[in-house]
């Protein structure tokens, strides 16, 4: 009986929070165990329409794991520290390391290190303490290796790679060799957090990955040009871009985040910068979440943006895809496959054949922004499709409802707000209706899974 009462109380409390919103932190106890419910900062009235700004995007409730997300799919309030965003270094405390060919260098303690030299067969290794923050300043550095990373972070709290106002080049030309059990397969390989910024240029050429991080990778400035046979930038936990000019040519993925041990991680957040990506597979793939708040994007790939939960809140995004332009598929069990567009200026140009402009193996919500889609199949979704706001143009014509491309090329009827499948619902388009998503009324669907239909 006690358990039933607690479950009922939790359900009522969640419903109240979903409708009214509050600033609170709650712990529910059940047989001595505590279940935490995250902070809820805001939620629009269930009768209000969703706006096109990220700050007003509704609160998400993932009912299966009792996870509440406020505003954005990923909480970015503490994503970048002040030091992450700094593009300079303290020259008074810096130590200069002049490289010599064939002689590796190891940094074993916290500090600022200016790296100079044009060399071959040299690895700069960071093997410092668990709490140490190390800053490597590349000052016109040129390293060409045959089979091992140019920069190898074995241990540190965080490493900053800062680009001085000149051009540095890092290359690996042959097949990578491992470091014991560690598959060191990138020009810059890091086992800990790494931040790349500065005011200079870094060119990376790789026979495998360009930059690999086993934790988090952040880019906050600089000009970065990567040519890679495999992923240009890959991370286990997350990739976050605040600024910088990134140009990528990859025979695999441009940005790739995936955590095989915890599939709630492996997310990508972009809040600014310029990204020009040409990739054979995906331009941007975050297995759990891809969140774009701002920035300028020129993407050309098989699939340009792929993840389980894709949220676009802003930015200027040009997509040229030979498969799907934006694709939400069940890569993570922590989220329902969903595409949510709240803002931005998005242009999608699709190749001929079995291609979709926006393909969701779950739900599709367009709440704001401007979309210009050229495609035989502009939309393909397995769950709910809603056009609640924004301006959507398909093949030169403005549309006020969504059509659904089904398997075998069959089109479902138009969808308006709150419409389910087959044209059920009011079919009124973005100017009428409640703007609330069907289901639990929480703003973001719960974790119900989803299967890709092809």
Task: Explain what the structure shows.
The protein has 454 residues and is mainly beta. It folds into three domains: 2-69, no CATH class; 83-230; 239-442. The protein has two helices and 42 strands. It has a 23-stranded parallel sheet that branches. A 13-stranded mixed sheet has the order 8-11-14-17-20-23-26-28-30-33-36-39-40, with no helix packed on it. The radius of gyration is 23 Å and the shape is elongated.
Topology overview:
Blueprint: H1 2-20, E1 26-30, E2 33-37, E3 60-62, E4 67-69, H2 82-85, E5 94-98, E6 105-107, E7 111-116, E8 118-120, E9 124-127, E10 133-138, E11 142-145, E12 151-155, E13 158-163, E14 167-172, E15 186-190, E16 193-198, E17 201-206, E18 209-213, E19 216-219, E20 223-228, E21 233-235, E22 238-241, E23 245-250, E24 255-257, E25 267-270, E26 274-279, E27 282-292, E28 296-301, E29 303-312, E30 316-321, E31 324-328, E32 338-341, E33 345-350, E34 356-360, E35 363-366, E36 370-374, E37 379-381, E38 385-387, E39 391-394, E40 397-399, E41 402-405, E42 411-415
Parallel strand pairs: 5-7, 6-9, 7-10, 8-11, 9-12, 10-13, 11-14, 12-15, 13-16, 14-17, 15-18, 16-19, 17-20, 18-21, 19-22, 20-23, 21-24, 22-25, 23-26, 24-27, 25-27, 26-28, 27-29, 28-30, 29-31, 29-32, 30-33, 31-34, 32-35, 33-36, 34-37, 35-38, 36-39
Antiparallel strand pairs: 1-2, 3-4, 39-40, 41-42
